[in-house]
């Protein structure tokens, strides 16, 4: 029973990943494909409420209130945290807090830490742990080799100009 | 020599009176005169007054750290973060984040810094940087990312904070210069360590200037693209932040960064004129990582039973 509560929580989080409420940040076109030269499906006006379904490259797949599906430039969207999914998400990111403050003594309370303002306030600097980072150091060659397995190669892209 | 001091003094006065361009501040930074000498000159040529102290402060603010000082500062600041939350001691996961992070850092102007990347073992969602090459990401954030280009975007943002000395400059403004110099010279270690720890807690709790965050977003996107990733990893993470309620696990992130919708708008402007290559979005090694950082569902007790209620604050649309 309790395990199924946990499973339900995870499912809720997973379901939430499929459609997220969003709004159109500035007037733009809904395209049939994630490309500038794709055919227009509809005009989208600023502030229009839509559902965000996912991203492809620089494009977001969305569904309009009229039920039309298509693509919009990813950076032409805004989002607002919806209240309905708040408890599910809180379950994940504050998992540690719950375990730490859990009323049941069987819940593990050791080794779960946070980096909230309060945690930082109470923190005692741990220089030894900084030293422990040396265990996981990789060499430049190892990083390059691993990047190759991920099909990464350096691109000749100029960094943006420094703002005056 | 004397001429140089006088020029420095003139530039410093101009800095103080607020009528100076960045170029002139750089000129002050680039003179080979150390701040002790400038302070001496101030003492010699200026009558005692409030202006005198302000001028000395302006000189402090333009002092350039040595790489050694910056590393020392970063080590002490990292000790504070790791004091709040230890490393996630899974060697495979930690090495993976170092591989991705170093690969991106190799595409910057400072590939030879002793770059160190670490996973903080906390479900809270955040990422941090410290001067001299330290970058941290929380286990909670890793779990929320969808692909490796998103991780690249987060790390490239933090790497930019290091490259552009954002935290070092902020700590300087908070008065850390003498404390760090003392630590490097190994003078009154414990007092200086404690003082620096408190300055670091203050900075991590209140965050950098918003302009530094926008700078890290803008440069982070281009840096990730230089490393061969899709440029849209970071924007995708910002979408996730923007659509996530501000529960306790994300409180510090939201308190220390501009509104995610405003960050998306700024990137829309910044990325407008560049035609980015498609780039790599994901890799098999990222999927393995996500398995490694997963929290096990407790066998007997469901933590879902009592999620802590936190005050919800409304995000204003940008
Ligand atoms: Zn930042």
How would the blueprint of this fold be written?
The complex is a heterodimer of chains A (164) and B (318).
Chain A: H1 2-16, E1 20-24, E2 28-31, E3 40-44, E4 49-56, E5 59-64, E6 69-73, E7 77-79, H2 86-93, H3 95-101, H4 117-122, H5 127-132, H6 140-149
Antiparallel strand pairs in A: 1-4, 1-7, 2-3, 4-5, 5-6
Chain B: H1 2-16, H2 22-30, H3 35-45, H4 50-61, H5 67-84, H6 91-105, E1 116-120, E2 127-130, E3 134-138, H7 139-144, H8 148-163, H9 166-173, H10 177-184, H11 189-206, H12 210-226, H13 233-242, H14 251-256, H15 260-271, H16 284-293
Parallel strand pairs in B: 1-3
Antiparallel strand pairs in B: 2-3
Helix pairs in contact in B: 1-2, 1-3, 1-4, 3-4, 5-10, 5-11, 6-8, 8-12, 8-13, 10-11, 12-15, 13-15
The structure holds zinc ion (ZN).
Zinc ion binds next to α8 and α12 of chain B.
Condensed summary:
The complex is a heterodimer of chains A (164) and B (318). With 164 residues, chain A is an alpha+beta fold. Helix content of chain A is 32%, strand content 22%.
């Amino acid at each position: 029973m309790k395990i199924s509560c946990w499973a339900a929580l995870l499912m809720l989080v997973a379901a939430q990943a499929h459609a997220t409420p969003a709004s159109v940040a500035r007037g733009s076109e809904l395209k049939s494909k994630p490309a500038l030269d794709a055919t227009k499906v509809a005009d989208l006006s600023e502030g229009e409420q839509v559902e965000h379904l996912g991203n492809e490259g620089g494009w977001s797949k969305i569904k309009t209130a009229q039920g039309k599906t298509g693509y919009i430039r990813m950076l032409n969207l805004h989002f607002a945290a919806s209240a309905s999914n708040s408890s599910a998400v809180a379950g994940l990111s504050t998992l540690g807090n719950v375990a730490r403050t859990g009323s049941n003594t069987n819940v593990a309370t050791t080794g779960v830490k946070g980096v909230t303002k309060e945690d930082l306030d109470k923190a005692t600097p741990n220089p030894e742990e900084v030293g422990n980072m040396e265990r996981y150091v990789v060499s430049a060659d190892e990083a390059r080799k691993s990047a190759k397995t991920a099909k990464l190669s350096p691109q000749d892209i100029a960094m943006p100009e420094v703002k005056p | 020599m004397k001429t140089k001091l006088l020029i420095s003094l003139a530039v410093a006065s101009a800095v103080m009176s607020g009528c100076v361009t960045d170029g002139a501040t750089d000129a002050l930074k680039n003179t080979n005169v150390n701040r002790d000498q400038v302070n001496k000159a101030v003492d010699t040529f200026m009558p005692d007054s409030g202006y005198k102290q302000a001028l000395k402060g302006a000189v402090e603010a333009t002092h350039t750290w040595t790489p050694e000082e910056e590393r020392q500062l970063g080590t002490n600041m990292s000790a504070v973060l790791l004091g709040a939350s230890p490393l996630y001691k899974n060697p495979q996961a930690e090495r993976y984040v170092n591989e991705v992070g170093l690969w991106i850092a190799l595409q910057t102007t400072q590939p030879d810094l002793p770059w160190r990347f670490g996973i903080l073992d906390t479900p809270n969602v955040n990422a941090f940087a410290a001067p001299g090459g330290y970058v941290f990401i929380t286990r909670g954030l890793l779990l929320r990312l969808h692909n490796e280009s998103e991780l690249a975007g987060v790390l490239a943002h933090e790497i930019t904070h290091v490259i552009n000395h954002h935290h070092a400059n902020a700590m300087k403004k908070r008065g850390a210069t003498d404390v760090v110099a003392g630590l490097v010279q190994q003078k009154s270690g414990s007092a200086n360590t404690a003082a620096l720890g408190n300055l670091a807690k203050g900075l991590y709790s209140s965050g950098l200037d918003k302009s530094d965050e926008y700078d890290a977003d803008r440069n982070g996107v281009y840096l990730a693209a230089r490393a061969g990733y899709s440029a849209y990893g970071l924007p995708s993470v910002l979408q996730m932040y923007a659509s996530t309620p501000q529960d306790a696990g994300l409180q510090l992130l939201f308190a220390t960064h501009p509104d995610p919708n405003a960050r998306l708008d700024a990137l829309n402007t910044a990325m407008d004129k560049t035609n980015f290559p498609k780039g790599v979005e994901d890799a098999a090694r990222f999927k393995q990582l996500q398995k490694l950082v997963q929290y096990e569902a407790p066998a007997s007790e469901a933590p879902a039973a009592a999620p802590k209620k936190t005050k919800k604050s409304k995000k204003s649309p940008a």
